[in-house]
Amino acid sequence: MAREVGRLPARDVDRLGALPFSYAPVGATSGSTYPAGFHRLDLEVAVGRGEADLRRAAETLMTWRMHAGAGLRVAAGSPRVHTGAVVLCRLGPLRIPCRVVWVVDEPTRTGFAYGTLPGHPEAGEESFVVRLDGDVVRLAVSAYSRPGLLVTRLAGPVGRWGQRRMLARYAGALR
Q: What is the mean pLDDT of residues 125-149?
């Protein structure tokens, strides 16, 4: 069962909005060249068929419900994703603070990328885009990251497995 998306208090929105990103360069998921020194992850999976499924998946994505549907506790600064929006997700004891870097809103392609803020287990950027490819609705996830906390450094390959598992849960939340 999907969790509800909570609202971040204004003081937390202001605090997260003022924090610097925990990595550089910011915005590289919008292109095809990712920075050196980061682990790169790309995944694409079918999540539906036709324009109705595209609209449903886009709405789920752009209202943070994909994250909540994947089992994260989500508190967002705004009910809809927009450039500069902040979100604080939690997975067990892990705090996952992010800020939206870019948004795409086209007739057959919708999505966004967010970047990590200090305190996130990883340092990097992740994009989520749903698009219509013929009659198939696809979720494309691209990310570049490196460990941001000692616990993630120590997790090594287990952390990468967890990241891939989370991506599968995101796709499941859009189906």
A: 94
